[in-house]
Amino acid sequence: MALIDPAESDALEVIRDASDKDNPYLYALRASAYTQVLYAHGLQTFAYSMTQGRMVDLRETDEDRITVIFNIIMPVVEAQKALILAKPPKRTAVPETRDQVDIEAARYASDAMEWGQRFHRLEELAPEAADLFVKMGNFVHFVGWDPSGGRSWQVEDGQFITEGDPVWRIDTMFSWTFHPHAKNYHESPYAHHSACVSRDFLEEHFPDKAHLVQKSDDYTTNEAQVFEQSLKNLSPSHGGILHGGYSDSTNYREAFHELQTLYMRSSPRYPNGRMIIALARGGDPYMLLHDGENPYIDHSTGRRTLPCVVVKNLPVPNRLWGEGPVLHLMPHQRAINRLRAQIYENAEMIANPTGYYWGGSIIPDQWTNGVGGLVEVTEGSPPPGFMQPPEMPSYVIHGEAAALQFADIFSRPVGPLSGEQNANIKSGIHQMIVEETKKQLVAPMVRSWEVGWDRAWKLWIDNWRTFADIPRQIGTMGDDGGWRQGYFSGEMARARFTVQIEAYSAMPTSRTATFAEWIELIKAGAAPIQADPAMARQFWDDIGKGNMARTYRDNTADFDKAQRNIMAVRSGELRGYEYQDNADTHIAVYTNWMKTPEFEQSKLKDEMLMYRMNIMVQSFMDAKAREMAALQMQMMAVGGGQVGAGMNGGGGDQPPSPADRVQGAAMGQRPGNGGGAGNYPRATQSVGKARNPVQDQGGNPGGPQ
């Protein structure tokens, strides 16, 4: 047997200690998280036995006689996931200086993040993360880099180099371990990850060591992986668990191996950090695959960092891992199950009496509760009767309602009684208050969710700065709806810009108060929502009823395009009027934005911003002037009684063309021309009078009709 090098032995010992495999507290924490998942899926008669090391059915141990499960946890989980995923956080790169290089790099970084959204399929990962976030209370973003991924090129010496691929993965709390005394993953000096990999993975990433791994090695689960593997054994019918648990020597026909990775931050002993990768059996590392510097860099500090972000739902003081709502709903769920089972059993006894008795007393040899059972009676005696069960105590019936109430209080605004509460909404003001209360209650949870994604995107950009030496071709959807090809590299990522997340939790404190403030502004003449489409949009958004006005919806596309034009101008591009643009909407959006503090700050960083904005606004003003000139000509033609006079090269005695007749009829329908109401929505029509959303107390507020 070959001797193990002392350096290799030291590395294996370090990664073994970091795995924290013998920590009973961490094991109990993972068992609790696993049980929460079972409860959420209705498997509420199972629990993980710490003594037996496997799942046990409580009905077999006489610890629980639950026969009816009234699952209130799954609706709560799905409702909270819906609130979290209702508005995905938007991310963009903003330059930190006025340098044109930084401005261009920020624009390409925004395109790169849009490409990363599709490359990593984050639309699929986000629901997976939300599921773990609510059921377990924690999940982990792993944002790394695969140097062997991507395209490859042959260089002059005949060797091949690869551009590498960014990696984004959503992990459970079962896979990660941090320093036992760390209160937050930021404070932990290291992060330990455990995963199951195939032999193909080893041959691709560790070709020098893969041949040393015996193909006949049994795959064994460690204490962290036993829960992840057990989740695969949930019965598809939700009736139970196919296997009670895994032993320490479970043999897989496919050669899967346990791979442990340790990431260490910069320290006095290791200024560039340390990364150790080893193969393990049952949590014990036995073969060192890699021992070197930690390649992941936090470019804001220049120090080595951890390529992961821990996101927790309900923070616990002085503890790295958080909690989820399922943990606090479990006691109420068990109480409801017991009470509902008792009520059902009582109803069964009343509907199907359990026995027959003879005469006025019960004789052991002369009564039965079996189907088709016979009771011996003597001739002339009274017939046998039913044994009536005792009445169900009132506290049992009321206890279920109390348990539901407690569960509802904790899980508001998505508790088991939330649907009943929504059905009792009587007015628009009531609807506003209910919706605002929901947002206030979920704001901390949503904020934690957003902060996690924000930190993950910043790690993603840092990885480009560190690893992407070769420009990577990326494709994005342009503002004009066309496909735009571009390149992004580590050199561009090293420019001075920052990633910003548009927070969903930045919400108005009170919709009722917001509406009252708008009313005061309108009365004072400071908010001309009837003449300013952009301000009208803000009005409807602030009171929580955006995009409801029929006449306002006609300007929505122009408003969105104006916002994109502003972002383009901030990035150094020139934009102007295009065919079919609504000049009124664009001018209002641009002039209003140029009054904001955001514009003042951007102007300090970019001296040419005012110049580009003026050029864009002037192009729309010129278009507006041309539109007004054409309109005046049409009005003169209609007012003279000869539609088409002087138009299309014809004289007043010539019959009007079809186009002139259409224009003349349209002008005659304008308000004030005596041609009728003429309230037809058009692409250039401004906003009509906004109706009071609380005028009709019998329904929800709506937009202008």
Helix content: 40-55%
Strand order of the largest sheet: 8-9-10-11-12
Radius of gyration: 35 Å
- Could you list the spans in which at least 5 consecutive residues all have pLDDT below 50? 235-253, 546-554, 641-653, 657-705
Span between N and C termini? 86 Å
Structure explained in plain terms:
By secondary structure, the chain is α+β, with helices and mostly antiparallel strands. The protein is 41% helix and 15% strand. The protein has helices at residues 6-19, 24-40, 73-85, 100-119, 122-135, 199-205, 225-231, 325-351, 394-410, 418-423, 428-467, 490-493, 511-523, 533-542, 550-553, 556-570, 583-593, 597-605, 609-639, 658-668; strands spanning 46-49, 54-57, 90-95, 138-146, 152-154, 160-162, 165-171, 176-178, 190-198, 256-264, 274-281, 284-292, 297-298, 303-304, 308-312, 356-357, 385-386, 472-477, 483-488, 497-502. The strands form eight sheets. A five-stranded antiparallel sheet has the order 8-9-10-11-12. Strands 7-4-15 form a three-stranded antiparallel sheet. A hairpin with a 4-residue loop joins strand 1 and strand 2 (54-57).
